[in-house]
Amino acid sequence: MQKGISAVIITLNEEANIANAILSVKSWTSEIIVVDMCSDDRTQEIALSLGAVVFEYPRVAAFDGARVLGVEKASCDWILLLDADELYTRKLSLQLTELMNQGDYDAIAVPRLNYFNGAPMLHSGFGPAGETYVRLYRVGSVHLNATLHAFMTHAPGIRIKYLEFDPQATFVHFNYKSSSQFVAKLNKYTGLTALQRKDSRAYADRSLFVVPLVEFLNRYLRKGGYMDGWRGFYYSFMMAAYRMTQNVKIKEIQTGCDEEGATVVYRDIAASILREYGYTSSAGTQ
Q1: How far apart, in whole angstroms, are the C-alpha atoms of residue 215 and residue 190?
Q2: Label partner for 11 (CA 20 to 30 A): which of 63, 65, 140, 279?
Q3: 68-92: pLDDT as tens digits
Q4: Model-level pTM?
């Protein structure tokens, strides 16, 4: 394994973002690995033109498996993680490489600056204080898996340097561009987490009310969402909706009343009504 940094990026139809992500790390990493989930656009073409090595991964909902593949393909002794809609500032790159070369740490955790509906979020539990992640680490110091939003575990005794937020030395995340995109991702991710947690007994009926309420109050009041203006209110409200939707989907699976179960119930009801007219099935055949 050679000395240096392998940057790992996972993509799916990211032609609008991938060049920015690559160019923000190209000058200070040894290799850039893009794991693409069968994009329909020019993502792979752009990545290759900028010197990245591209691997394909099946287009599956649990996308963290693609990141695991990228790390397995890396040839350097340090790994840098980023998404296609993220960029590392120049000042942060200098800070990271200096800390890496000092040899005092195995991993570096960096505050992320999220943009939401066109503006930076500084509070609401979505600001840098609540969005600090290990993004640069020595191979072997962390373990990656394919579990959504819980893909990283730290090795025992890992030495982590936690950086303070600096607007000039951060990694920027161009997150949700619109409420429509937010709702679409909410639906996607709540379905995935519901499948992962469907066997949990922690989701009682009270979870449908108490958990979303606590989520909203925590983000909007305790974590200062009100200071992010209308975006802070909307984000806090929608994260409460996220919790409720996730828990409803878990209840649907546990009670057999998900989409598949409801289809069977509705079919039987329709058949019962149509039998009153002399039909033998809901398809209208006699």
Answers
A1: 15
A2: 140
A3: 999 999 999 999 999 999 999 999 9
A4: 0.83
3-state secondary structure string across 119-173: EECCCCCCCHHHCEEEEEEECCCEEECCCCCCCEEECCCCCEEECCCECCECEEE
Condensed to tens digits (0 to 9), the pLDDT of residues 105-161 reads 999 999 999 999 999 999 999 999 889 999 999 999 999 887 766 678 999 999 999
Please tell me the CATH superfamily of domain 2-174, with its number: Spore Coat Polysaccharide Biosynthesis Protein SpsA; Chain A (3.90.550.10)
Task: Measure the CA–CA gap between 223 and 67, rounded to whole angstroms.
Answer: 30
